[in-house]
Amino acid sequence: MGRRSARRDEGVLVVEGAVLLREAVAAGRRVEAQFVAPDVVAVAGAGEVHELDPGVIDKVTDTETPPGIVSIVEHRLGAIDDLAAASFVLVADAISDPGNLGTLMRSAEAAGVDAVVVTGGTVDTSSPKTVRASAGAVFHVPIVEVGSLDDVKRAGFTTYGTSSHRGADHRRVTYADRAAIVIGNEAHGIADDAPIDEWITIEHAGRAESLNAAMAGTLVVFEVARHRRGPSGTVTPS
User: Fold this and answer.
1) Average per-residue pLDDT in the chain?
2) What mean pLDDT do residues 168-196 have?
3) 148 near 173, Cβ under 8 Å?
4) Position 9 pLDDT exceeds 80
């Protein structure tokens, strides 16, 4: 694979609300413009301000309670080469729900994951619902898009595939120094022939066959983070 720049712009994000816009600014993202409803105060220093007529902003968002500000912010993605310095990544493999993808980003940032890797077939990382569900993590945790799980393997990671019916208890696994936690499609999971080194499962009671994808990802990345801290409670350097 040829070398690619370590950081590249990939279009824009539609960011709804002042809180998320401030997160984007804090993360150093370029704001192209913000569109503001009547009587709403614009975020200072965040791009050109366009004041909208009454009712207009309601038509450009799909939220039940319009946020008052909609902004256009650069969408920044990492390149595959960025993974060379990573030791702990979360892989969203063909995740179809933007809310799940955004929640996985949020949990990844909170657990100290080095990057969120998104394979082909996964919902658009720039979806407004993904941005909302990420609670600003989309601006702070590196996001790398790859073609398939094979790219993750070639980057030198040991892959751990989550499953509802096979594998070791995720709490009793000794995770490799360079670990990639793979969360599969909500309906179909991870393909049986995927390049997975070890399958893991989350033991649970009740009638449900499995947990929600975002919930499963959250539990596993926090367990890996605990494992990496070790007995001393200090995170092992990458």
Assistant:
1) 89
2) 95
3) no
4) no
Give the whole-angstrom CA distance, residue 179 versus residue 227. Answer: 11
Cα distance between residue 196 and residue 162, in whole Å? 10
Report the alpha-carbon distance of residue 96 to residue 100 in Å, rounded.
Answer: 8
Question: Is residue 183 within 8 Å of residue 210, measured between CB atoms?
Answer: no
Set out the domains of the chain in order of their start, with CATH numbers: 7-76 (3.30.1330.30), 79-229 (3.40.1280.10)
DSSP H/E element including 213: helix 213-229
Joined together, the tokens standing for residue 42 give: 């614009």
Token reading at 107: 């949990």
CA dist., res. 236 & res. 229, Å (int): 6
Residue 122: phi and psi, rounded to 5, are -85, 150
Closest by CA position to 211, among listed 191, 189, 179 = 189
Provide the Cα torsion 217, 27, 151, 106; round to 10°: 10
Q: Are 47 and 33 in contact (CB under 8 A)?
A: yes
Query: What's the angle, vertex CA 119, arms to CA 23 and CA 176, rounded to 5?
Result: 90
The number of residues in the chain equals 238
pTM over 0.85: yes
Within 10 A of 117 (CB to CB), how many other CB atoms are there?
A: 31
Those residues with Cβ within 8 angstroms of residue 109's Cβ, 6 or more apart along the chain or in another chain: 137, 140, 141
